[in-house]
Design brief:
Elements lengths: L1 H14 L4 E4 L2 H8 L14 E5 L5 E5 L3 H7 L4 E5 L11 H5 L5 E3 L6 H10 L5 E3 L1 H9 L3 H24 L6 H23 L14 E4 L20 E5 L5 E2 L2 E2 L3 E5 L6 H20 L6 H14 L9 E3 L6 E5 L12 E9 L4 E10 L4 E3 L13
Parallel strand pairs: 1-5, 3-4, 5-6
Antiparallel strand pairs: 1-2, 2-3, 7-8, 8-11, 9-10, 12-13, 12-14, 14-15, 15-16
Length: about 375
């Protein structure tokens, strides 16, 4: 899988007249080489994947991660560097760019310290962007990636079911987060054991649970806290960060109520959110533009008297955000093999309702990857 991606990437570099690409985004390094779980720039240690259109690929990574790199990286050569020794990660870069007429980088992802040093080596006129090339490569998922998406959906469904069961009057939010994490980890471990041979891939969820209840529900990305949930309150669960199976990401969220909906205006808002997602899904199919799906969703929300909404959704894969986005201005034509999150969401000053699922675009429409009831009567616990 990784060798095929690297080969295709080299072909695209040649077509674009690029001699070498320097890849620094963690997800793109993994996409091309299979290398993951190394030290990141949070610790001040760059990892750089150099891919010439002709010649050996090179992975520059800290010595601390050398054993992991040898075990997982599908590259021709690895250059390990150590803190304070010689020229550290800079040692190999001059040789990789020497004589190159065009050098592709990821302008928005390259760490400033690496970008500054590269500026000392080459004239800025030689630099091009690899971002669009990689984004295009990653839009259409392979058979193996679609299997990952479906398995990630099973993990997400297990988390949602566990979260739903844990929500109750008198229970603190963090207990829901514990339940969802355990359920997701167990389902991921089951799938990894049954279908995959990478013994180093962790099944554990590793993202703070996004959830909110009661008056905090208007805080979109509120994390599970010590707040005690009470009867009649709304509860929002989001797994857009936690659904990360074998490094494949999805989006998935639901709004619930404990016992009953005491404030009937909340039910009305919720119904518009569900209707907006339904409209988006009626528009979702291959051959249409990404922005047309957003337009269908936005029309329902605006028609109900609410403010113009944020994007309807986004593509996912090995990153939380990929291309295209379902938003005004994105004219990308949807194609089979894309994996998209499609949301329905409405907010006012005191309440916020959201439902979201992930879908694979098929030849004739779409295939759901996540699945949980969303009718109003089904989300009253």
């Amino acid at each position: 899988m990784f060798l095929s991606r690297m080969r295709t990437f080299r072909e695209r570099l040649a077509e674009a007249g690029i001699d070498v690409a320097l890849i620094t985004d963690d997800d793109n390094v993994y996409y091309l080489s299979g290398y993951y779980d190394y030290l990141h720039m949070d610790f001040g240690r760059p990892t750089i994947l150099a891919v010439p259109r002709d010649g050996d690929s090179l992975l520059i990574t800290p010595t601390l991660d050398l054993n992991s790199a040898r075990a997982s990286a599908r590259v021709d050569r690895i250059a390990a560097w150590n803190d304070g020794k010689g020229n550290e990660w800079r040692e190999e870069l001059p040789g990789m760019v020497r004589g190159a007429s065009r050098i592709a980088i990821e302008p928005d992802q390259m760490p400033p310290t690496v970008r500054t040093y590269l500026g000392e080596l080459v004239d800025s006129g030689k630099l091009a962007s690899a971002t669009a090339i990689l984004a295009e490569l990653r839009m259409i998922k392979s058979k193996e990636e679609l299997q990952l998406a479906r398995h990630a959906g099973q993990v997400a469904n297990a988390m949602m079911a566990a979260g739903r069961t844990a929500i109750a009057d008198g229970i603190p939010e963090y207990e829901v987060a514990i339940a969802t994490s355990q359920a997701g980890t167990r389902k991921a471990a089951e799938l990894l054991s049954a279908h995959y041979d990478d013994a180093n891939m962790s099944p554990n969820t590793h993202f703070l649970q996004i959830m909110a209840s009661g008056e905090t529900i208007i805080n979109t990305h509120h994390r599970a806290s010590t707040r005690i949930m009470r009867r009649c309150e709304p509860v929002f669960l989001c797994f857009c960060g936690m659904t990360n199976f074998h490094r494949f990401k999805l989006g998935f969220d639901r709004t619930f109520w404990i016992g009953e909906v005491a404030d009937k205006s909340q039910a009305a808002v919720y119904e518009v959110a569900v209707a907006s997602q339904k409209a988006a899904l009626e528009a979702l199919r291959p051959g249409v533009t990404a922005e047309s799906v957003h337009a269908a969703y936005a029309e329902v929300i605006a028609g109900a008297g609410y403010e113009y909404p944020f994007r309807c959704g986004r593509a996912t894969g090995f990153s939380f955000l990929e291309r295209p986005q379902l938003v005004t201005g994105d004219t990308t034509i949807l194609r089979p093999g894309m994996v998209l999150v499609v949301d329905g969401s409405v907010s006012n000053e005191t309440f916020r309702a959201q439902v979201g699922d992930s879908f694979i675009v098929t030849e004739n429409g779409w295939e759901p990857v996540t699945d949980h009831p969303k009718a109003l009567e089904d989300v009253i616990l």
